[in-house]
């Protein structure tokens, strides 16, 4: 029987950071006298097959989970995104669980495209970039008082992630967040404006920090601060 012929279950959305592990476990018990429990990807590709006693052959990145018939997929990549289904194989197959898995990537980079400075003012053109999205903004500094043309620039990507570039206490901040991770890349406007007029700067700036936070649970954020 194909999965499309089975009774549908509620699809559980799961967001996981690239490089982390994905745990798949059953939401319903198999029926009596079932032959196998199959985990499939996108309804057709067999990930692992369990016998009634929980025995299975797992190799490579696929490992046993903590519970019976559960699977842990190690070091997930973007290509691992998709629909994961658990099916009890019987005379009439039963769909037990479905996960809609989205593997998300979170690196962010603040690139200084251009610095035009004079004795009176300084104009900075910067780009805030992730692997699949970017936004640009211009900043103007006069006597070390800086402002952002057009105000804060937010953008929501197709995957539901948020990308922002804004100014705080004369620091230009590029912020990226998604359902599983939050990270920033920062540059001090004062240091950039001290460079020669028209010179292009591309991540060769001191006074730079990268801040990352993993959303490990609903109420806890663990932050890491690195200086270059």
UniProtKB/TrEMBL annotation:
<keyword id="KW-0472">Membrane</keyword>
<keyword id="KW-0325">Glycoprotein</keyword>
<dbReference type="InterPro" id="IPR036179">
    <property type="entry name" value="Ig-like_dom_sf"/>
</dbReference>
<dbReference type="InterPro" id="IPR013783">
    <property type="entry name" value="Ig-like_fold"/>
</dbReference>
<dbReference type="InterPro" id="IPR015631">
    <property type="entry name" value="CD2/SLAM_rcpt"/>
</dbReference>
<dbReference type="GO" id="GO:0016020">
    <property type="term" value="C:membrane"/>
</dbReference>
<protein>
    <recommendedName>
        <fullName>Immunoglobulin V-set domain-containing protein</fullName>
    </recommendedName>
</protein>
<keyword id="KW-0732">Signal</keyword>
């Amino acid at each position: 029987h194909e999965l499309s012929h089975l009774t549908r279950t509620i699809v559980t959305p799961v967001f996981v950071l690239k490089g982390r592990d994905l745990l798949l476990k059953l939401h319903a018990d198999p029926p009596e006298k079932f032959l196998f429990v199959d985990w499939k990807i996108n309804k057709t590709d067999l990930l692992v097959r369990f016998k009634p006693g929980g025995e299975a052959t797992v190799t490579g990145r696929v490992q046993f989970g903590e519970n019976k018939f559960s699977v842990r997929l190690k070091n997930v990549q973007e290509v691992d995104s998709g629909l994961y289904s658990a099916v009890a194989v019987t005379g009439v197959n039963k769909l037990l669980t479905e996960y809609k898995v989205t593997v998300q990537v979170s690196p962010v980079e603040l690139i200084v495209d251009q610095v035009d400075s004079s004795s009176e003012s300084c104009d900075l053109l910067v780009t805030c970039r992730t692997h699949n999205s970017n936004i640009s903004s211009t900043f103007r500094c006069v006597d070390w008082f800086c402002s952002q043309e057009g105000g804060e620039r937010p953008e929501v990507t197709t995957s539901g992630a948020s990308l922002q570039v804004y100014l705080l206490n004369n620091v230009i901040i590029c912020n990226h967040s998604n359902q599983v991770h939050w990270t920033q890349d920062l540059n001090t406007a004062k240091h950039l404006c001290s460079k020669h007029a028209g010179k292009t700067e591309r991540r060769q700036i001191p006074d730079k920090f990268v801040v990352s936070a993993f959303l490990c649970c609903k109420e806890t954020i663990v932050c890491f601060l690195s200086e270059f």
